[in-house]
Write a structure and sequence with these properties.
Shape: globular
Distance between the termini: 49 Å
Number of domains: 2
Number of strands: 4
Structural class: alpha+beta
Strand content: 5-15%
CATH architecture of the largest domain: Up-down Bundle
CATH class of the largest domain: Mainly Alpha
Radius of gyration: 18 Å
Helix content: 55-70%
Oligomer: single chain
Largest sheet: 4 strands, mixed
Strand order of the largest sheet: 2-1-3-4
Length: about 230
């Protein structure tokens, strides 16, 4: 019998990790459909005609798009399981604020470092990334209220939003021989990142660093080839 919940995505995508972790937290059984993106499948183009991006969640054949919207949808649609978003309206607003900051400012800066034209540009980009991590270190202190995760005792909305990027952070650290999330400068985030990656709802979806690094090198080679042609 066909599953009522399906996720269309690709394993390297941090955005695809988000609904998969959310569904795991809610103990929802689902089917994962691998999207090759070369070219984009008819299913993707039909189900997300506006952005043409993964992930797409299908619930009873109805598509829901955009990763954080999907996470909120999962939280509401499967409300019998523990909530992913905080119950307090102010706490919810704060977590949404930082999730938007991650997607709209921090990650685009982080991703842009790989495409920097020279070492000077790369160094400036990493400095901006570190400044953002310093803000998130402070946000963790305020949001967690002394508990293990941004959301308190367990993985929640902001943990998913930020934690989905950790695989790519590890790749960047290894490829550039640097440390971005460190015990010295961001001790809260360093300890949180270890807890997040080891969590039962997360560990099966966190990509292996070496495998993800191979994918990153392939992307960079394509970018360089396109730039030189």
């Amino acid at each position: 019998m066909a599953k009522e919940v399906k996720v269309l995505g690709a394993w390297p995508s941090p955005f695809v990790m988000r609904p998969r972790i959310a569904l795991q937290l809610k103990s929802v059984d689902y089917e994962f459909i691998e999207e090759t993106m070369q070219p984009k499948s008819e299913l993707l183009l039909k189900s997300n005609p506006v952005h043409k991006k993964i992930p797409v969640l299908f619930h009873n054949d109805k598509p829901v798009c955009e990763s954080l919207i999907i996470v909120e949808y999962i939280d509401e649609a499967f409300s019998s399981a523990p909530s992913i978003l905080p119950s307090d309206p102010y706490d919810r607003a704060i977590q949404r604020f930082w999730a938007a900051y991650l997607d709209e400012k921090w990650f685009p800066t982080f991703r842009g470092v790989a495409m920097a034209p020279n070492e000077q540009g790369k160094a400036a980009g990493f400095e901006q990334v570190r400044e953002g991590l310093s803000l998130l270190e402070d946000a963790f202190d305020k949001c967690s209220k002394g508990k293990p995760f941004f959301s308190g005792d367990k993985v929640g909305y902001l943990d998913i939003a930020f934690g989905s990027y950790l695989g790519w952070v590890r790749v960047s650290e290894k490829m550039n021989n640097i440390e971005l999330i460190s015990k010295e400068k961001t001790p809260n985030l360093h300890a949180w990142a270890e807890r997040f990656c080891a969590d039962d709802a997360v560990k099966n979806y966190m990509p292996e660093t070496e495998k993800l690094m191979g994918f990153a090198k392939m992307l960079m080679a394509k970018h360089q080839a396109a730039a030189s042609s």
